[in-house]
Amino acid sequence: MSVLIVTSVGELVVDLHTDLCPRTTDNFLKLCQTKYYNGCLFHNVQKDFLAQTGDPTGTGRGGGSAYKLPYGDQSRFFNDEIRPDHPELTHSKKGTVSMASAGNASQFYITLRDNVEYLDGQHTVFGTVTEGLDTLMKINEAYVDHEGRPFKDIRIKHTYVLDPPHLADLAPETSPVGRKPKDEVAEERLEDTWVPLDEKLDPVQLEEMIRSKEARSNAAILESIGDIPDAQVKPPENVLFVCNLNRVTQDEDLYTVFSRFGTVASAQVIRDCKTGDSLCYAFVEFEAKKACERAFNEMNNCLIDDRRIRVDFSQSVSKMWGKFRQGIQNAKKDGCFKSDAPHLRARNCDQGSEKQDRQDTTGRRKIQKLDVWRSEPPYKCDLDSKGMHDDQTTYGNPSYSRHNDRGYSKRHCRSRDQELISMTGVTKNDDCRKGGRHKKDERCHKRSRET
Fold first, then answer.
1. Higher model confidence: residue 108 or residue 390?
2. Cα dihedral angle (418, 419, 422, 426), rounded to 10 degrees?
3. Is the pTM higher than 0.85?
4. What value does the mean pLDDT take over residues 34-53?
5. For 141-288, where are the alpha helices, taking DSSP H only?
């Protein structure tokens, strides 16, 4: 009697010793016929020693015999059929199939080399691999972890019993659907259908894919450390990077030289933020991409102010920092090329926003001053000028709060208007209000002297 075992790396044909080990072979045939082994992992592979499988959980601690199905858990194991005195039931040849556990259940192993006689008398030998030694070689060469589990899963796909007349009634109508047993709890690894990229792609495509992955990973690193605004950002295609410039070369010179190729949107020589000296490199932006390409082809190694310049397409995305920093509402706002350093970026790219913030802060401070001035109690002389005295109006009287809200006189209304005008940009200051206060003080002293 023979069994065909189809694995994810090849096929194995096992001849069974049905006459010498009837109970063990009967258990193995029934498990194969019921598709019990379909999807089981080779969970323990020890190079040049053995390969173990037959556990639906994939851990090496599960599985049960075929007698467990009709008789329950008490029949999970059955007695050994060890016969070390018989020459066919020894571990002398490569491909020997034996039961893995001391109490026989469902797990079994296949030896991967000859002369493993020290296992004789410890496990029941019930078969031998007669075809598929190349499959055993592939299993033996698998990369495994410290516990012997292959990093790439090796599974039993199907088991077929050859000429099984007395086991035909045990076979299910269809093979189990799915590649994994429902009881498997082993850690997930690379699936048995996984194929390395070097076996699926040619060298050119593989090299291109590797470069693309490296570029994405490098972009993510640059984004995390703050060198670029976003990992998906791309440098502009209409900007040239010009280096090896003479220190006397100005923006207007570059504008004049490069305008022969097309309309130049901007030409900026990068300078030191403190001294203003040229750093001998610049960025030239064109309105059209084709003009930028023509300038790249013709201007490299040209002579400008007695210096041989170098021209290349710009890889800088510093001009886009403004769009990412200002938010979606200001996404159309252009940045600048001078933001290639953190101290320059904060000074230049956010210059417009900082100026607006300063204006807003100044306006808020003026409004706060105006609110404080309005909330101050009126001078007594103001109340006297209106003909109102302490016996008529007090700070707790509602009429006083009404005067405080509406203003004391037309002169006070004019002074408040002057404060509002000064906030809108007219060249006036708070001295108007202070001058009005001084005049009020003078009138109060004059009345007191007359009284």
1. 108
2. -10
3. no
4. 92
5. 197-200, 203-224, 251-258
The packing angle between helices 289-299 and 251-258, to 10°, is 100
Residue type, 226: G
Distance CA 144, CA 194 (A): 16
Amino acid making up residue 275: T
Looking at the DSSP bridge assignments, the partners of residue 432 are: none
Query: What's at 40, amino acid-wise?
Result: C
Residue range 75-83: mean pLDDT, rounded:
84
Question: What letter represents residue 23's amino acid?
Answer: R
Going by pLDDT thresholds of 50, 70 and 90, the confidence category of residue 341 is: very low
Residue 363, pLDDT score: 57
Contacts of 384 (CB under 8 A, 6+ apart): 444, 447
Burial of 439 (C-beta count, 10 Å sphere; 0-12/13-18/19+): exposed
* Nearest Cα residue to 335 out of 388, 268, 258, 276: 268
Q: How far is CA 196 from each of CA 155, 200, 253, 263, rounded to the nearest angstrom? A: 18, 7, 55, 50
